[in-house]
Design brief:
2 copies of one chain form a homodimer. Chain A is mainly alpha-helical and about 210 residues long. Chain A contains 7 helices and 4 strands, in the order E-H-E-H-E-E-H-H-H-H-H.
Amino acid sequence: MKLYSYATAPSPRRARIFLAEKGITVPTVEVDLRAGQQFEPPFRQINADCTIPVLELDNGVRISDAVAICVYFEELQPEPSLMGRGAEEKAQIAAWQRRAERDGFYAVMEALRNFARSFKGRAIPGADNYEQIPALAERGRLRVQRFFEAMDARLADREWITADRYTIADITTQVTVDFAKWVKVEIPENATNLGRWFRNVSARPSATA
Amino acid sequence: MKLYSYATAPSPRRARIFLAEKGITVPTVEVDLRAGQQFEPPFRQINADCTIPVLELDNGVRISDAVAICVYFEELQPEPSLMGRGAEEKAQIAAWQRRAERDGFYAVMEALRNFARSFKGRAIPGADNYEQIPALAERGRLRVQRFFEAMDARLADREWITADRYTIADITTQVTVDFAKWVKVEIPENATNLGRWFRNVSARPSATA
């Protein structure tokens, strides 16, 4: 088994933190995104979508999506539970993970890819090219700021984003906060709940994954 | 238990088809999106995000996301399996569901909300207002067309999007095809595999849900 990854990229980091929390070690293969290796024929054969992470199983099957990789390992090794126990908890964790992704992670991606020169013509991940739309860069930053406000309010009387422990919803939010630094959006000083939560999650050993 | 829904809206339809496939009946409460009921105080108290579907459990807990609602019922009643059996199948279904959502469903939403007069100032679902960006309407339609081409190729030697049966990945793709008609994107005549698959899924009793 191996994980195609890139040390500084946020999407594979979601899977790496998940694995670290489970205590599972999977050998990684670095795909140098800065050098554009994801678009070169050898990697296109591994994932025609030209994205990472990709998990390659020993039977050759490949799973090419960060959350789908988490689904795989959660099923293989349910504890420590990062996606919930029982219908209600699983559903709430899925809902909050998806919200953090939609309002946070994708908003940062939108801000970055529509602004940075290195993403010119590459406004959307995947095999197809799309031109940057400058209005999206600005909108993305605004959305991230609003996401931080909403999460700060959410965390006023909670230790974790949902449930009574660290879950995949925390992972997505945590990776979003670090990713947002790339577009110069930081947790505001008055967002003390989000700030406290972020210091907590960042102190976990998995944060360096 | 009740499901807040709206008959013609695509997001709640995803949950309704899922329930119909499971043979589970949940009373629905119509939220009239055309009249803007999702923004009025009574519904804001149910979901501050102002979106449907929302599933309200008998204990008062609310789950406000189409896929999270599916997670709930899949756990409660695993068969017929719509999200997979075993780690590998669950992961592949999650990956294809997410791809259909990212490249298909969200692309239609982008095209519609950035074009239709009725969505002026409402380019993104949720409680916050965002102005339309005309370039996104055009980009959204192009993305849907490319998604249809990709799914047509995928279905050349497959009966279903993934696995050996109808799953949540089919549901998302199916709802996307119907939703795309709102932005005047239809399955092209030469996409015979996607056309055949769509006739099949549309003939299922659940398609009227």
